[in-house]
Every structure is written in C-alpha cells, then in structure tokens.
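Long-time lurker. I teach an intro course on protein structure, and each term I like to show students one example going from raw sequence to a predicted 3D structure in token notation. This year I'd like something fresh instead of my usual example. Would anyone be willing to generate the tokens for the chain below so I can use it in lecture? Attribution to the forum is fine with me.
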Amino acid sequence: MAPGAKAALERLVLGQSIKLRFGGAKMDRHGRHLAHLFTNDGTWIQGEMLTRGWARVYTFPDNEALAEEMYAAEETARAGRRVIWGHRFYRVRSAKAGPLYNDIGTFQIIKGTVVAAANVRGRVYLNFGEDWKTDFTVTLDPKVRRRFEKSGLDPLTLEGRTIEVRGWLRKRNGPMVSASHRQQMRVLAGP
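-- Reply from a regular --
Happy to contribute to a lecture. Here you go:
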C-alpha cells in the first residue's frame, strides 16, 4: 500500500509551500524531523492522510502534539473502512493471545479487557487473560507508570476496563506491548 500512500501524499503537498509545526522533540534518534505539516492554506497533512485512510496514529513519548485530533481523524477512516482499514493486516487485533503470535515483531493496535492489573517490583503488568505466561500483556516500567499517573491515569485502575493499545508486539512469555507513554493507550469502556 506504500505506493498508494506516497501518491496520496504527493497530491497533497507537491508544488506547495509547507510549514513545519513542532509539538515536542524536533528530531527522533534517527535524525528524522518530528513535525506536523501544514500547507499555506492551513491544510493539516497528517490529518488528511489519517482521514483518508492512508495512515494510522503513531505517537512518541516526547512528542504527543495533536494526538487526540489524530485519533479522531483515524476513527473517521476506520468507521468508513477507508483504504488501510479495509485491509486485513491493519485491522484492530483482539487481545486473545493465540492469533497475536502471528503478529510478533509488527506494529499493531490491540483491543481487549484488562483481566488483572498488577505491580511487580515497580513494573505494572496489564494482563488480558487468566494465564500471564501465554496471554497478551501490556507492561509499563516505573518511570512510564509515573508519567501515566501524572497525566491522570493510574494504570492499576484499568482492571475490568476495555482498552486499546498500540505498539510493537513482542514475545515475552506471551505476546506483549511495552507501553512508553499515555497516548499509546486509550480507555474505551469499563467501570
């Protein structure tokens, strides 16, 4: 789908003057600029790519600017099953462990209900099944937990709540995402 996304981006920006707006760190560790792009007429390029279904939200711990607006644009595309959202690879995954094993090493969006939330030597584990050794888990190191709490969300209160988390899926016991910042996780429902 990369050629289609490239063509869509070219239609939006070729021949245009582009303004960069930074909302946190200006560069990532690879030397890439972390900026939102705007045309002179005010068109927000990331928002357009998300709304049209050519991209999905990917935030960083030190650059969460416009995250809520990006999620809203992505929701529009998801609801309409636009472009990538009509493709099997990009579908939101269920937190059931079995099928997730096929996606280890990829960036995924996973939705499920937290069965148990535990603090083990400062690290938080959000388990999505009864067997923490095989079921999907989200982990937060102590520093990340403090950032979550500072943003108004204690991850230990997520037990019984349905959440959506996005990140790189790894295998540690079962499938696992290591959360690094609050905008990586959205609380959808629960008590």
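Some talking points for your students: The mean pLDDT is 92. Residues 67-79 form the longest helix (13 residues).
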